[in-house]
């Protein structure tokens, strides 16, 4: 059974559909990328799975249970790294983890898993680089031992070394059985990490397949679906 199952999902804001009749599934331990130009509906999908938005029609299920609202999504094991990261920039790395886990002991146990963060545990988050902040945001999301991880714009604006660290971190989470659905503008980075990818345009699914299959169609996908330069 799929860990995440979207069936004929139509979602949007103020009653206006942004995503239309989307079918999508993600298994435990699987990483799926959502690709497409700006305005395609990628973030709307994540917000609906995370309970931020309610479906206009269709269904969102995690572990066979309907997602209705943020609290219900969290109770079902969904953890969401939103664009902008949602960190407390005036607090330290350690304090951010403590707030997320509601436990000093848990924060102490988590930090050694991330040597880069442990080395700057008492530094204010506002002084960290973009890559370090994104690493912390994902570490915070994983600190609650989720079943399913949502990540919006995972590598945007980050240096290659930071991107490599993040890809490794997410793959390790999937290897532990966490399902992952992420949005990424850099297509090659996305296909390097993902097991499968789905391409949205104007709120509709226009292509999907394994990363290997889509990598073979990269030029065609770029010409047909993406309003962006070819990835680095």
TrEMBL record:
What are the TM regions of this chain, as residue ranges? none
Instruction: Write out the entry's keywords from A to Z.
Output: Amino-acid transport, ATP-binding, Nucleotide-binding, Transport
Among the GO biological process terms of this entry, one is:
L-amino acid transport
Q: Which Pfam families match?
A: ABC_tran
Q: Name one GO molecular function term.
A: ATP binding
Homology family: Belongs to the ABC transporter superfamily.
The molecule here is called: ABC transporter ATP-binding protein
């Amino acid at each position: 059974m799929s860990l995440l199952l979207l069936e004929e999902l139509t979602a949007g804001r103020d009653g206006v559909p942004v995503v239309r009749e989307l079918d999508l599934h993600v298994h435990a331990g699987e990483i799926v990328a959502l690709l497409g130009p700006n305005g395609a509906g990628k973030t709307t999908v994540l917000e609906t799975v995370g309970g931020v938005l309610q479906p206009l029609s269709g269904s969102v299920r995690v572990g066979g249970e309907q997602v209705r609202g943020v609290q219900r999504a969290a109770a079902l094991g969904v953890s969401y790294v939103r664009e902008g990261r949602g960190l407390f920039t005036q607090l330290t790395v350690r304090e951010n983890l403590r707030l997320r886990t509601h436990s000093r002991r848990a924060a102490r146990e988590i930090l050694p898993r991330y040597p880069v963060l442990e080395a700057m545990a008492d530094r204010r988050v506002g002084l960290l680089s973009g890559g370090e902040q994104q690493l912390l945001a994902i570490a915070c999301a994983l600190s609650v031992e989720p079943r399913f991880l949502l990540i919006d714009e995972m590598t945007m604006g980050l240096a290659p070394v930071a991107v490599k660290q993040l890809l490794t971190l997410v793959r390790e989470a999937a290897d532990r059985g966490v399902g992952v659905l992420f949005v990424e503008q850099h297509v090659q980075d996305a296909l390097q990490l993902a097991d499968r990818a789905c391409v949205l345009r104007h709120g509709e699914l226009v292509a999907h397949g394994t990363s290997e299959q889509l990598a073979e169609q990269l030029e065609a996908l770029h010409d047909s679906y993406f309003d962006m330069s070819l990835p680095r």
